[in-house]
Fold this sequence. Notes:
Strand order of the largest sheet: 2-1-3-4-5-11
Helix content: 40-55%
Number of helices: 11
Strand content: 15-25%
Distance between the termini: 71 Å
Number of domains: 2
Largest sheet: 6 strands, parallel
Amino acid sequence: MSKVSKAWTAAVAGLALAALPLMASAQEEGGTKTARELRADYDKSLKGKSIAYLPIALGVPLSDEWGRVVQEEAEWRGMKYIVRDPNNNPSAMQQALTALVDQKPDVLIVQNPSVTLLMKDLKRAESQGTHVIQINMSSNYKSGAFVGADWNEIGKMLATDVVKQCGSGSGKSGKVQIIQGELTAAASVDQVAGIMEVFGKDSAIKVVSNQAANWDTNTALNITATVIQQHPDLCASVGFWGIMQSGAAQAIRNANKIDDVKIYASGEGSQLDCDQLNQGNFYKFLSYKATEQGHDLMFAAQTLLESGDKPGTKHLEYYTRPIWLDKSNASGANCFALPKK
Length: 341
C-alpha cells in the first residue's frame, strides 16, 4: 500500500472514530430530530380525531370493503372510527346523516344515493367544522374531497368496447340493453352520458332498452327477461353494477343466449364479480377497485386534516384508474376476498 493510501485510510478511520460519540448521543436522545418532529406533527393532525362513515348500505362487497380499509387504517393512526348503516333506506340515511353532523366528527365519508338527497346536511357539516369526503357517487354539492370512479370515463370505456363487438362491421344486430342503477344517482347520470356519447357516433348501435333496476338483482333479471324475449338477437347488455347485472346474466342464461349476448358490468372487483367472469356469465368487467378506493379515502382524510385548512375551502379529487377484467385476469389481487361469515 502506498503512503498516500495509508494516510487516506488512517484519516477515514479517524473520522469514523470521532463520529461515534455523536452517533451514540443521537441514539440516546431518541433518534433524529427530524423524525421526532415529523411524527409529532402527524399525530397532532390525526391522533384522537374521529372519522365517520355512512354508506348507502352495509352487507355488500363494495361498501364493506371501503369500511374495512378505512377502519383498519384509521385505527392504526389512532383515530376513532364511527359507522352507520341505513340499510338502503333513503329516509333512514337522511336521519343518520343529520345525527352524525350534529355529533361533529372531524371527517365524514358519505356515499350519496342521489345527487340531491343529502346536499344540505353535507354543506352544514362543513360549515360547522367537519371535513366531508364523498365516495364514488357525488351530490350536487362539491365538498372538500371526492374519491371514486370517473363515471363518464367508465361509460365511454364500456361503450367503446360494445361498439367493437356490436357496431358497424361486426355483422351483429347492434342491439344493446342498458341497465342503470338509481336514475338520480351520479353513477347512472354520468355513466349514461358517457355511453350515449360514444353510441351516438355509430348508427349501427340501437339501444332497445334503457331502464333502471335500482341496484337490485331481481329487478335486473325481470327487465332483461322481457328484453331478451322481445329482442332475441340482442347483441350486448351493459349494467352499472356487478351484483345487479348478475340478474341480467341469469335472465340471458335462462333464455339460452349466454353465448350470444356480450354481458358487461362495472363494479368494485370483488370475488363475486370475478366468479361471474370465470363462470362465463360476464363477458367483460370494468373494475374500479374498491380496496384502492378505501386507501384513497384515508389519503384524502389525512390530507384534509394535515392541511389545517377550514373545511370546505379545498376541493380535492382522487379518481380511480379502472381496469378491464375477463377470464384471463379475473383472479388473485384483481378480486378482493369477501369477509368470512
